Amino acid sequence: MVQEIDFWFTMGSTYTYLSVGRLREAARAAGVLVNWRPIRNVGSLTGATQPPFLDGTAKMRYMWRDIERRALAYGLPINPPIPYLGGDRFKANRIALLGMSEGWGPAYVEAAYRQWFENRIPNGDPENIRVALLQAGLHQADVERVISVADGDELHKGLDQSTETARETGVFGSPSFVVGSEIFWGDDHLEDAISWAVAGQLRPR
Amino acid sequence: MVQEIDFWFTMGSTYTYLSVGRLREAARAAGVLVNWRPIRNVGSLTGATQPPFLDGTAKMRYMWRDIERRALAYGLPINPPIPYLGGDRFKANRIALLGMSEGWGPAYVEAAYRQWFENRIPNGDPENIRVALLQAGLHQADVERVISVADGDELHKGLDQSTETARETGVFGSPSFVVGSEIFWGDDHLEDAISWAVAGQLRPR
Question: Which residue numbers of B have CB closer than 8 Å to A's CBs?
């Protein structure tokens, strides 16, 4: 039986770049099926009214340095300084949701994150959306169609529903990996989630 | 040249148990010197007025499950349900600071955390303090001496100073590992910190 991981994420999340950049290859290598499940944002899960990182804090400085160190270790491109919270992440997540039902979702999310971390154009920025959709293999006409439905009721409702399912599951941050009833939070725990899906236990250290 | 890691921690922290339980052996195996440096509490670093985990939240449930899974994987004892925020963690940290200058600090911190996670007696509880000091090898008379100076000005000032140094270094959570100018936050990053101390880079995944 193929083991499955629900990958819950919001495209406003910085750390999620590290998982998006290596998830498809890691899952393929382990023979695990991944369901990519976008949500609105982290605040919709936790009730928090502030973003997880605030300008001028030690935690914000640490986050960028930590991501840079790990991107280098993973061989993922990164071009600091990276902008934070610049684009319409809600729209980016609605487009990702549509993409998951049409098959181009993971490629769109990967391309969008590369735009953000290589070219400093944040997820949900109009240019990021167009370029990422083209890079995901959509034709120009399809790009226009996607952009024209991205603000529609159906995707709004779909993303709200997805977010509510995440919340009921116990997800409270991005990225999160869910294997059965076990939640693994943070890019650090990607390998643990895969190990749990394959072997029912954490990997040895 | 022996490489050094500053291990910043507060004994109010739950996740710190996972690091305390394996730090001495991991450092010994890697040939790294660890400076154990207690601080007052996380709020003194960040200005936060609430504890990092709140009753009834998904994050709190996740924290306990995550620690339980990882304790089992590390071979560390754990006996849920574990109490949270029950003892006087400030006093526990002052005693740890004294212990670091007298040589019994790491053994006290390890014994105290075992009291908390095996016997459900939180760090800083009077019984936890007595038992942990005895288990750390102090004689009864020394235990009485330590308890009698634990609330004195000198240790209060020392712990405040230590906390201020941590804050100036950019530490904002417990456990944190500092190697030169690099900060690694969280028990997840213990291996990364050791790898950085030994080889100047993150371990491969």
Answer: 45-46, 57-59, 61-62, 65-66, 69-70, 72-74, 167, 170-173, 182-186, 188-189, 191, 201-202, 204-205
Partner-chain contact A191 B205, CB within 8 Å: yes
pTM of the full structure: 0.95
Provide the token pair at B53: 């985990």
Which residues touch A69 (CB under 8 Å, ≥6 apart)? B182, B202
pLDDT of A1 > 70? The answer is: no
**A204 in a domain, yes or no?**
no
Q: How far apart are CA B43 and CA B13, in angstroms?
A: 11
The CA distance from B98 to the nearest CA of chain A, in Å, is 28
B138/A101 Cα distance (integer angstroms) = 65
Quick check: B170 and A66 CB within 8 A? Answer: no
Q: Is residue A205 situated within a structural domain?
A: no
ipTM above 0.85?
Answer: yes
- Cα atoms in the 13 Å half-sphere on the side-chain side of A112: 31
The structural domain count of chain B equals 1
Q: Please list every residue in chain A whose beta carbon sits closer than 8 Å to the beta carbon of residue B172.
A: 57-59, 62
- For residue B18, the enclosing domain spans 3-199
User: Given an 8 Å threshold on Cβ–Cβ distance, is A182 in contact with B46?
Assistant: no
Through-space distance between the first and last CA atoms of chain A, rounded to whole angstroms: 27
> If phi over 0 gives left and psi between -120 and 50 gives alpha, with beta otherwise, what is residue B186?
left
For B171, name the nearest residue in chain A, comparing CA atoms only.
Answer: A58
Residues B148-205 have pLDDT tens digits of 999 999 999 999 999 999 999 999 999 999 999 999 999 999 999 999 999 999 987 6
CATH of residue B47: 3.40.30.10
- Domain for residue B205, yes or no? no
- Chain A nearest-CA distance from B95, in A, is 27
